[in-house]
Amino acid sequence: MFGRVKPLDAILATAEKKSLHRSLGAFQLTMLGIGAVIGTGIFVLTAEAAQKAGPGMMLSFVIAGFVCAVAALCYAEMSAMVPVSGSAYTYSYAVMGEVVAWMVGWALILEYAIAAGAVSVGWSGYFVGWLHTSFAIDVPKELVRGPFDGGMINLPAMLIAMVVTALLVKGTKESATVNAVLVGIKILALTLFIALTIPVIKTGQFEPFAPMGFAGISAAAASIFFAYVGFDAVSTAAEETRNPQRNMPIGLIGSLAICTIFYMLVAAGVIGTVGAQPVTGAAGEALSPGTPALAHACSAIHDNAVVCSKEALAWTLKQVGYPFVGWLIGAAAILALPSVILMMMFGQTRIFFVMSRDGLLPEFFSRVHPRFHTPHVITILTGVFVTLFAAFFPVGLLADVSNSGTLFAFAAVSIAVLVLRRTDPTRARPFRTPVVTFTAPLAILGCIYLFFSLSFETIALFFGWAALGLIVYYAYSRSRSHVGRGLVEVHEGDRDTPPQPVPPIE
């Protein structure tokens, strides 16, 4: 089952035959990375992390950030060496074979599409709160929450998902330009938050540091990992990047480093000003985020805790005497969170694009719009699913499910780097992962640790999704695979020549 390996030379040839327009540079990639990373995790999920770990969420950010850092170094080597669309899927195809590549691509659906839905729900929370603060408009909860969260449908989340879909169909360059503006707003908002909260920190707010023990810190790290998800979406833009051998590593590592600094300062500002102790039940038991029990406990204290807020940063500023700035932070989140949705959907469509190009998905998925030069068919289809996820599921559930797919993909890339160093040591590597025999295994172990720190329900759902993926592969994709049928792709100059048959690779 590991025999169908697509050679790197064939992968690069395929990209040349049906390539996307190269228009992105190092600065744009870094901005895309920051746009994809800073979003729901810090604006919304800070409250969930506090409920699980208390002030110990500071350590949760460090753990999740460290796992991402070592994984980013592996991503940087692979993306610079293989500058084509597809990210972890493409790398796995070249190293570990078609079945593993399919499973990675299948898992990336959990990462990108469901994550885009989660961010859409996070945006909805800020938007509804902003309407209430600004215009005293109270939207019925039945129209702003899904059925799992006490409502019927989340209309604002659906709306923003549809707007972003239309923007992506319009074109990558336009999307990147809009994103750069939104990233600027986001960074300005977080900088303002840090400047106002850090000077008034009270060290006593950090005690007790870990009220739920290290298990709580681990659980929070597994959830807050969502705050870092997105940097790998930069690597899916490799085929649209100028000089990818230089620019991809800069975009990946640069965006992650900037985001980590912001996260630590923002988390310290929240904890040190208003505190971040979990809300417990009547018997002192821990209450899980996003449950009716926690909602009831929060109602009993009139939502007077950061863990009860759907807009944690804006709420914090209002509590420390900056209500207008809190309003501005809410407005900034409303403007900036769509950039995260954009990058998640961008990554999803490019994964589907290259899987279709390999024959594992229907060929019409890889059609490029004659005017906009974007994969419009799969972009619209992805937008439909993201809209449905956003309409009916709560943000915490979506974030955890997304994390399970992401961690699987990260581990696969780290394994691919190690394997390729042994099987193809002479290939040019514009960027080499430092101390790869230590860095890559550390990334793999870190991913496994965070994966099994997720809830049992999330892990079970992931394995169920994986089983469904195998059924789809053997029922449809395996028999239509270009590699399995012995079809080798040709270069750009030979685009009118039919694929040439070669002996099947099994």
Structure summary, number of beta strands:
2
In total, the number of domains comes to 1
The end-to-end distance, rounded to whole angstroms, is 8 Å
Helix content: 55-70%
Describe, in short, the structure shown.
This is Amino acid permease. 65% of the residues lie in helices and 1% in strands.
Would you kindly provide a written description of the structure presented here, covering whatever features stand out?
This protein has about 500 residues and is mainly alpha-helical. It has a single domain, classed as Amino acid/polyamine transporter I, CATH 1.20.1740. Helix content is about 65%, strand content about 0%. It has 18 helices and two strands. The chain has helices at about 10-15, 25-35, 40-45, 45-55, 55-80, 85-95, 100-135, 155-170, 170-195, 215-225, 245-275, 290-300, 310-320, 325-355, 375-390, 395-425, 435-450, 455-480, and strands at about 485-490, 500. Strands 1-2 form a two-stranded antiparallel sheet. Helix 7 packs across helix 15. The longest helix has about 40 residues, at about 100-135. InterPro entries: AA/rel_permease1. Its main location: membrane.
